[in-house]
Amino acid sequence: MSTVVVFHSALGLRPSIRRFTAQLAEDGHEVHVPDLFDGRVFDRLEDGVAHRDALGIPALMGRAAAAVAELPEDAVYVGFSMGAASAQWLAATRPGAGGVVLLHAALPPAAFGLDAWPDVPTAIHAGDRDPWVDPGVLDAFDALPTVEVHRYATAAHLFTDSDSEEHDDAESERLVAEVRRFLRSV
Fold first, then answer.
1. CA 5: distance to chain centroid?
2. Closest of 9, 13, 22, 12 to residue 80, by C-alpha
3. Does residue 29 contact residue 180 with C-beta atoms inside 8 Å?
4. Sign of the Cα pseudo-torsion (120, 123, 36, 45, in order)
């Protein structure tokens, strides 16, 4: 089993994230869930994004790096939306990453100063009409041999957040099953 680090969305470390991580722990993974917002949670994405912006991206990345500093190099990183940036950055820049799962977001390698995505097992999950996700980025990743791209029939952004109005039971169950399968494979 893997050491798995799960980064929350801009809504903060809500109960839905804890329920998700409990499922991973049931599979035998050692799961770590850093709270990058120091206990702050939000119901509206706009409020969470404003809080993220007030903290600043460099500060959030510093918090993410500090959260994994003592963990094994081969940890697998999982990120929900805003948290996907932390997961993706760590997988791309911390040597030895065991894998990365990006939920509801994916940034092009150039966002991290890279010419190409490293040879890290990667799974990306996003709604096929999610306005927050660039379909061109998904298509570029889909062409890489170490990347799985999963598209879901929804325009909702955080469709896996069971505490949100955007929640979609069927697509969320499908996503969780795919994440659990991926984690067994790395």
1. 9
2. 9
3. no
4. positive
- Secondary structure class of 150 (helix, strand, coil): strand
Residues 6+ positions from 106 with CB-CB distance below 8 Å: 84, 88, 124, 126, 133, 134, 137, 138, 141
Nearest CA to 25 among 174, 172, 183?
183
Reading the block at residue 10, the tokens are: 């801009």
pTM of the model: 0.96
Task: Write the pLDDT tens digit of every residue in 82-116.
Answer: 999 999 999 999 999 999 999 999 999 999 999 99
The runs of H, that is alpha helices, within the chain are 15-26, 45-55, 57-68, 82-93, 135-142, 169-185
Helices 57-68 & 45-55, crossing angle to 10 degrees?
80
Residue 22, number of CB atoms within 10 A of its CB: 11
- Each residue's pLDDT tens digit, 8-54: 999 999 999 999 999 999 999 999 999 999 999 999 999 999 999 99
Ramachandran bin of 12, using left for φ above 0, alpha for ψ from -120 to 50, beta for the remaining angles: left
The letter for the amino acid at 12 is G
Query: Residue 8 corresponds to which tokens in the numbers above?
Result: 């929350």
Measure CA 186 to chain center. Answer: 16
**For residue 99, what are its two tokens?**
């894998």
Question: What's the CA gap between 123 and 126, in Å, rounded?
Answer: 10
